[in-house]
Specification:
Among the domains are: 2-22 and 150-256, 3-Layer(bba) Sandwich (Glucose Oxidase, domain 1); 35-143, PtsI, HPr-binding domain (Enzyme I, Chain A, domain 2), CATH 1.10.274.10. 48% of the residues lie in helices and 12% in strands. The protein has 23 helices and 16 strands. It has helices at residues 38-61, 69-83, 85-88, 90-98, 102-118, 123-126, 129-143, 170-177, 194-202, 238-259, 285-291, 315-329, 366-372, 374-387, 403-423, 440-444, 446-452, 460-468, 486-502, 519-524, 534-545, 549-561, 565-580, and strands spanning 2-5, 7-10, 13-20, 161-165, 184-186, 206-208, 222-226, 231-234, 275-280, 297-301, 334-337, 393-397, 433-437, 455-458, 506-508, 529-532. Helix 15 (403-423) links the parallel strand 12 and strand 13 (433-437).
């Protein structure tokens, strides 16, 4: 018996035999095409596109209506990409002008698109390069007339098999989930990979980033998957199997118990009411938020409106999209985050010809980009202001690092309010404006921001990586990503205290807020507003309801004083045990 450590992608316990998926890789080579064969080569490419669309539509038709919205959302994204000119037209141009084979033309375009995504600073958006690879590989398989590996077909039953692959496409994931796959393992990927996101949506245990695991894992080998710890136990003994079977039964009982919490308020055991909202991106996410009883939307990401298109959305398109979202909430509050995209926008058509930043994580992104390109910012601010007249809306500005940026944003809001008033268009003049605190400089100066704003929301994803100077999706350093690092906890505490001092609410909308391991610690630090992924909401609510704030605050202070990471981890265990007792 031995264990292999990877990256936790989706919590849960699974026990079963491994099915190792063949890599199914293929080599793409360049070849020239005679002038009289160019039309035929273009036709061959178009047939491959149609074939890829047909495969994805067939898979989508098989998705049950009660499946998590993320699943069909990924399939829809891939279908849209197959219609996008970046993939549908650019290779045709290469075939015609360079007189090369379709496979090589597609590879040239794939490499160009991936380079753009790799230059993006946002970890989530950077992982969307996986979409490019998944769609391109599907087209290439059709061009090469290669059947997909067994993972995507019904030829080999995979029921009760734990699938281990280099990576999995959303379509692969859907097909295998309906075959009764209890867990996923992948050699590559991180917590933001498609496999990880879909596994969480489908509530399937998953461990990713298992580098070199093919050396140790064999077909039909018995393994135990501990999704929470990111561990794979190979060839376990009977005692270990019994231990994890007990843990799995307990987890199942907890999941059933949490479903009863949907309509109950998030109140601590000593009577403190906590605001518990949801993070959403697509309109379809609203149904998931409503099903778990979210009291509102604490983070509405607007980036999806800008992706996979030649031109950015105009004011009217954004207004209609935001209005549809807030109308679905039926009076519940929604916090709309302004555009948070990175430095190189060539793929989206917003900044044609812009230079690629040498360090995009520290480059022109989010509010910096919007202030520089006010033609991009103006339609969004006006659309948000207009929709504020219809329902409770808050505007949140990401990536603020200094007061001058804030002053510029507030001046623009006043300017557009005057414009709308002159045009006779309604808006809420008192619409709350807040900041996402995700840059260490903003957290240190949170008291200055709090004096000028109506609320603050802590974005822990970027705050942690900027504070510790690591890229959490870089496999080489991701082990350093530590939400409990003393510097991170101090910045969180500083931000919460700034809100209290200035009488404004402070929320947290990063992944740390949706991890129930940290719920009691955050409550002990004084956090009273959480915004989490809908799939995490009930688990966080359960932790809130089992928390006694008086006792929790004492242990939280001890966590803040702890020097060693082992001590902090031990205190977190004690905190969580205290809540469950």
């Amino acid at each position: 018996m031995f264990s292999i450590n990877g990256v936790s992608a989706s919590k849960g316990i699974a026990i079963g035999k491994v099915h190792v998926v063949d890599r199914g890789q293929f080599e793409i080579r360049e070849s020239s095409v005679k002038p009289e064969r160019v039309k035929n080569e273009i036709a061959r490419f178009h047939r491959a596109l149609r074939s890829a669309r047909g495969e994805l539509r067939a898979i989508k038709d098989r998705i049950p209506s009660d499946t998590a919205t993320d699943v069909s959302g990924f399939i829809d994204t891939h279908l849209l990409m197959l219609e996008d000119s970046a993939l549908a037209n650019a290779p045709v141009k290469f075939i015609r002008e360079k007189r090369i084979n379709a496979e090589w033309a597609l590879k040239i375009q794939r490499d160009a698109l991936v380079a753009v995504f790799e230059a993006m600073d946002d970890p989530y958006l950077r992982t969307r390069k996986d979409d490019i690879d998944h769609v391109v590989n599907r087209i290439q398989r059709s061009l090469l007339k290669r059947h997909k590996p067994a993972r995507g077909r019904q030829a080999q039953p995979l029921s009760d098999r734990i699938v281990f692959a280099d990576d999995l496409t959303p379509a692969d994931t859907v097909l295998m989930q309906h075959q009764g796959i209890p867990a996923f393992l992948t050699e590559y990927g991180g917590p933001n990979s498609h496999t990880a996101i879909l596994a969480r949506s489908l509530r399937i245990p998953a461990v990713v980033g298992l580098h070199s695991a093919r050396t140790y894992l064999r077909d039909e080998e018995l393994v135990i998957i501990d999704g929470q710890r990111g561990v794979v136990i190979v060839d376990p003994d009977a005692t270990t199997i019994r231990h994890f079977e007990r843990r799995r039964r307990e987890i199942d009982r907890q999941v059933i118990a949490r479903k009863r919490l949907r309509k109950s308020p998030a109140v601590t055991s000593d009577g403190e009411a906590i605001e518990l909202q949801a993070n959403v991106e697509l309109p379809s996410d609203m149904a998931a938020a409503a099903q778990v009883g979210a009291t509102g939307i604490g983070l509405y990401r607007t980036e999806y409106l800008y992706m996979n298109r030649e031109e950015p959305p105009d004011e009217e398109e954004q207004y209609r999209a935001y209005l549809k979202m807030v109308n679905a909430l039926k009076g519940s509050p929604v916090t709309i985050r302004t555009l948070d995209l990175g430095a190189d926008k060539q793929v989206d058509g917003t900044r044609p010809g812009a230079p690629v930043s040498s360090n995009p994580a520290l480059g022109l992104r989010a509010v910096r980009l919007c202030l520089k390109e006010q033609g991009l910012f103006r339609p969004q601010l006006r659309a948000i202001l207009r929709v504020s007249a219809r329902n409770p809306v808050r505007m949140m500005v990401p990536m603020l690092s200094n007061m001058q940026e804030l002053f510029q944003v507030l001046q623009l809001i006043k300017l557009y309010q005057r414009e709308l008033k002159a045009e006779g268009k309604a808006f809420d003049p008192s619409m709350p404006v807040g900041a996402m605190i995700e840059v260490p400089a903003a957290a240190v100066c949170a008291d200055l921001f709090a004096r000028r704003l109506d609320f603050l929301s802590i974005g822990t994803n970027d705050l942690i990586q900027y504070t510790i100077a690591i890229d959490r999706i870089d496999d080489e350093v991701s082990y350093l990503y530590d939400p409990l690092h003393p510097a991170v906890l101090r910045l969180i505490q500083t931000t919460i205290n700034a809100g209290k001092k200035n009488g404004i609410p402070v929320a947290m909308c990063g992944e740390m807020a949706g991890d129930a391991r940290y719920t009691r610690l955050l409550l002990g630090l004084g956090l009273k507003e959480f915004s989490v992924h809908p799939n995490a909401l009930l688990e966080v609510k359960q932790a809130i309801k089992e928390t006694h704030l008086g006792e929790t605050r004492k242990l939280a202070r001890r966590v803040m004083r702890a020097v060693r990471s082992a001590t902090r981890d031990s205190l977190i265990e004690e905190l969580n045990h205290l809540g469950e007792a």
